[in-house]
Amino acid sequence: MLLHNEPLSKYTSWRVGGPAKNLFIADNIDDLVRFLKTLPETEKIFWIGLGSNLLIRDGGYNGTVIITQGSFLNNIEKLDNNIIKIAAGAACGTVARTCARMGLTGIEFLAGVPGTMGGALAMNAGAHGSETWNYVEQCEVINRSGEIKIRPAADYNVSYRHVITPKKDEWFLAGFLKLTPGSKEESLAKIKDLLAHRANTQPINLPNCGSVFRNPPNNFAARLIESCNLKGFKIGGAEVSTKHANFIINNNHATAKDIEDLIQHIADEVKKHHNIELIREVHIIGESLEN
């Protein structure tokens, strides 16, 4: 399905963002390959899963957006030797529960990650001391020419919340994760506890993108932000959550500019009070309306 001038606010967890010039949701892998082959080399391409960890500016995206949520890219398949092949569009929460029910442990932490496997691979998503790439054996990728290949984990330069891919314009179709056999009941109980903790400590009932900033070495972004008395601080409809200071909520019809301005204000205040440069976890793309 190909749409034109489609509002991206419908596809992001902050519920903000201007239109995409083109937006594509593939029916199957052949459909995706055919579509990629039609795009000119100069066309900008951006992939979106559940639209968390992402701020799209109010002017939208002057290129092609490929959506994995609601597409065919949601399979979770158990292979030999406790390897799980997880398609890029599979929601992380579903991945955690499915693997637990298979009696495979290690990635229960993904239950609290508000994105898809593609996003988890792209940013090395993690929580509670665990990270996605601790378990990755290899990845299935596709490039803008529609060529599909398997890459070993060693091809990627991975660090905290950051992954450098070996080729530009190459995107994840699936990850192959090596897990450990264990107790299904214990894994599901752990997931239940993680989700309860998340509900108690994060504003999951309001539009947000997840954590806005990475944690600095030996510190916590939320603690630094809270120490600057920024909980509840607002710019337009965007607000620093009173429940968790490293979350910004769309509390009153915020614009992307409201959110981006608030992100910058938080970073400026932490720098002023603590001389620490907060690094954004959230990706910001697109054009401002002023442009």
Number of H/I helices: 6
Main sheet characteristics: 5 strands, antiparallel
How many separate domains? 3
**Spatial ordering of strands, largest sheet:** 6-7-15-11-12
Number of strands: 20
- Strand portion: 25-35%
The pLDDT mean sits at 95
CATH fold-type name of the largest domain: Uridine Diphospho-n-acetylenolpyruvylglucosamine Reductase, domain 3
| CATH level 1 class label of the largest domain | Alpha Beta
Task: Outline the low-pLDDT stretches.
Answer: none
Tell me the series of helices and strands, N- to C-terminal: EEHEEEEEHEHEEEEEEEEHHEEEHE
Structural class: alpha+beta
Provide structural commentary:
This protein is α+β, with helices and mostly antiparallel strands. It has 3 domains: 2-67, Uridine Diphospho-n-acetylenolpyruvylglucosamine Reductase, domain 2 (2-Layer Sandwich); 76-201, Uridine Diphospho-n-acetylenolpyruvylglucosamine Reductase, domain 3, CATH 3.30.465; 221-285, UDP-N-acetylenolpyruvoylglucosamine reductase, C-terminal domain (Uridine Diphospho-n-acetylenolpyruvylglucosamine Reductase, domain 1, Alpha-Beta Complex), CATH 3.90.78.10. It contains 6 helices and 20 strands. The protein has helices spanning 29-38, 92-101, 117-123, 184-201, 221-227, 256-274, and strands at 2-7, 19-24, 45-48, 54-56, 61-67, 76-78, 83-87, 104-105, 126-127, 130-131, 136-143, 148-152, 157-159, 162-164, 170-178, 180-181, 234-235, 238-240, 248-250, 283-285. It has a 5-stranded antiparallel β-sheet, with helices on one face. Strands 1-2-5-3 form a 4-stranded mixed β-sheet, with no helix packed on it. The protein has a 3-stranded antiparallel β-sheet with strand order 17-18-19. Strand 6 and strand 7 (83-87) form a beta hairpin. Helix 2 (92-101) packs antiparallel against helix 4. The longest helix has 19 residues, at 256-274.
